Structure formats: structure tokens, C-alpha cells
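Your task:
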Amino acid sequence: MNLFIPLFVAVPLGGAFISAIIGTFVKKFSRFFTSVVLAFLTGLAVYIIFTVKGTLVVNVGGWELFGKIPIAIYLVVDGLSIYLLLIINIIGFLSAFYSISYIKKFTGENNYYILFCLMVAGMNGVVISGDLFNIYVFLEMAAIASYALVAFGIEKEELEASFKYQVLGGISSLFILLGIGFLYWSTSTLNIADISRIILADKKNELVIFAQVILLSGFGLKAALIPFHAWLPDAHSSAPSPISSMLSGVLIKAIGVYVILRLFFNMFAISYEMSLVVTVIGTLSMVIGVLLAIGQWDIKRLLAYHSISQMGYVILGVGIGMLVLSRNGDRSVAVLSITGGLFHLFNHAVFKGLLFLNAGAVEYETGMRDMKKLGGLSGQMPVTTSTSLSASMSISGIPPFNGFFSKLIIIIAAIQAQYYVFSILAVFVSIITLASFLKVQRYTFFNKSAGSWVKRGISVKEVPFSMCFSMIFLAVLCIALSALILPSVRDIILTPAVDVLVNAGKYSTAVLGY
């Protein structure tokens, strides 16, 4: 089973290489081959999550411990890793399948799929890496591919957004590399499990504390949390819609939020001060993101700001769990809060990925994203309308959609932990989110007076099959993921990921074996 772990990187890298060669001569090869690659990875993630318990570790090159010192590159898949791999590859497959029809309007189609595979390989690599330097290498692979994909339309707006994204992405990468350097200077190792053991023996090392601040800033920029969010609205709104779905649905999670969780639970000792900082950042992201979104009229820009807000829910849930653990509080409350955060992580990938695909379908048919110019599309685009309504209800926290249950868990955990202000703000943000998406539905699909697309003589119909399939599949998941509230389902998919964070000290033992 351990031999399956490298496939999460090797298969998409091989897919990019094969597409670069065969796709040059066979025009339609890459568009179908990429979907096959992502379908295989999704199936592999599902197989592992249902059959494997515990932690899988691969020492690249077969190098074993040398006097209890890890000298190999470690690839690690535990409950948290496989949870992220499942999210990345499901959204990746549906975005790639959606692209079969959508990307035909762009030139350089083969290059698009090569970059798509490289981005997925980078994200998968970040999630399975057991050492800091390879996390950095893989996140750069994913980030550089995403820079090119944001600019894929090569219009002025796309190029400007990509440039801003690259500049701020470069600054975040510099912070991350500096943080890694400080840790290596202090501990003489890059292995996460090994660093954890050394840090626990010297909890008051000031250089390590400084490295925590630098790394939180760097990965906070990758995750686009407030106040590190400036690049996200332009990048997510300018990219092709399947790429917007990937950026918002999985990229900011895989190379931002996931690494923050991994490092601040499984490598650094949980402290009250850093837990408070993380929780405040999550709360600010949640509140400020939704307030910035409510006034937007560009659909994709509105969705981009809501990505900031919804990731704030995730960080808030996890942050409350950190606060409880740091003060040796009730572990059941910490478990509940972290469960809500990780549950919302999956939910956000699904409903936000779907909303960006809906926006892409509207733009595909009308050529517009301004809601003031849209309206009356419900009759012409029934699949897009119904799936968009499902996603809107989910992100707004309306039962029985999945977003309701994850938000409810976070709010209940905040109340049980006696953080009443956080719970009130979470409810307030959910109400504003509902108002925002009622506006989206009204002005885009249900406005009685049809938009300017009618005056321009644009003939609107439902989008092609591949685009409809991806939207319908994600809409079904918006209901199906509500099943994670059931203990029998939660214990298979979600609980192992929560256990990795709550029982943080077990990570080193599971990886190093002592």
C-alpha cells in the first residue's frame, strides 16, 4: 500500500509529460487524458480512505534512520493528508472534465492541460511531503503553474492579475523560505517529525517563535487570509472559471491552510498566543471578506471575496480548537470545533467550486459577468440555475445543505468554549452571506426584466454536457456531504483527520517509528 503514495505526484507529472508529447500531434488527446488522470487519482484517494487505517510512510530511496536521524525524503499519508488528497483530486477531476468544453474558446489548449496537471502534482506533493523543503518545492510548482493559468486569457485584466499574484506570491515564498532557514539553523533538520521532537525539548527558543510568525505570514499569504488577501480577488476573477474553481476550491487550502494546520499542530508546540493570533485572523477574514463581497456586482469577484470569508470559518473553527487545547480545556470541545473547521474545508471546496463553474457557464453563454447586465437566465439555463441555487443555499448555511451542518458545529463549539463573540459573528456573517447570494440569484437568473444580453441579440442556451455534468455532480455533493454529520460516515472520512490534529504528538512517533 505504501507504494501507492508516490503515485499522487508521479501520475500527474507523467500526465503533464505525456500531454506535452502526444498532445502536440493529437489535438484532442489532452482534454480527455487529463480527466482520466484525475479520475484515477480520485479513485486512489477513495480507495485509501476506505481501506487504510493509520499512517503510511515512504522513505524515498529506501534510506532508513541513521542513529535516529531521518536522512531520507519522507512521504507521509495520514488521516489529514488523505482527506486533503480526496478534496484536491475530486475538484481537480470535475474542473478538468468541465474544461473539455469550456477551454475550447482559448488558444493553447494543450498547454492549459499540461499546466493543470503540474498544478495538481504540486498540490498533492505539498500534502504528502514530510519535510519542509519539499513542501516548499511542491508549493512553488503549484504556484508557478497557477500564475500561468491565471494569465491564460492573455488579456490586459488577466495579465495584470497574474502579475499582482506573482509579486505577492513571491513575497510569501520568500517568507516561507526564510522561516524554513531559521528552523534549519535552530534544529539542523528539515523533517517535520524530527523538528517537532527538537522543539518540544526547547519550547522557549526565540528563533523558533520568530520562525512561527514568518511562516504564518507566508502561508497566510498563500491562503489569502486577512490581511494577506490583496492578490485573491483579481486572480480568482480573472482566471478561466475551471481554474478559479481550483484556486478557490483547493489551491488556497493545499498550499496555505493545510500547511498552517500541519505545522502549528504537528510540528510546533501549541501555544495560547499563536492560537489567539490564528483565531483572530480567521475571524477578521470571515467578517471583512463578507463585507467586501456584499457590494460586488461582478459575479466572480463577489465569489472571490466570499472565499476569504468562508476560509475564515475554517480557521475560526480550528483556531478555537487550538485555544482550548492550549489552555488544557475540554478536549471534546476542541474535537468538536476542529471537526467543524475541517468539515467546512471540504464543504467550501464543493460549493465554491460549483459557484465558480456556474459563473463560468453564465459567462460562456452570455459573455458577461456583471449582474446588472444579466437576468432572466433561469428559463434558458435550467441546469446552471438549479445547481447555482443549491450552491448558494449551501454557502449561506441553509439546511439540509452541507454548509449548514459545518457552520452549526463551529457555532456550537464556540458557545461551548464560551467564546460568545465568535459565535455571534459567525451567525452574523452567515446572514450577510445569504443576503449576498439572494442578490446573485435574483439579478443573474430570476430577474423578471431580462438583461442586456437580449438587447444584444445573444442566443442563450444551456452549456454543453461536460460542463453540466460537473455542475450536477457538485450540486449532488452539496447534499451528500451532509451525511458527514452521521457518526458512521464521519468516522471513516473526517474523524481520522481530526485525530491527527487533536493528538498532535503522535505524528512524530507514527512517522519516525520511535
Summary: The chain is about 75% helix and 0% strand.
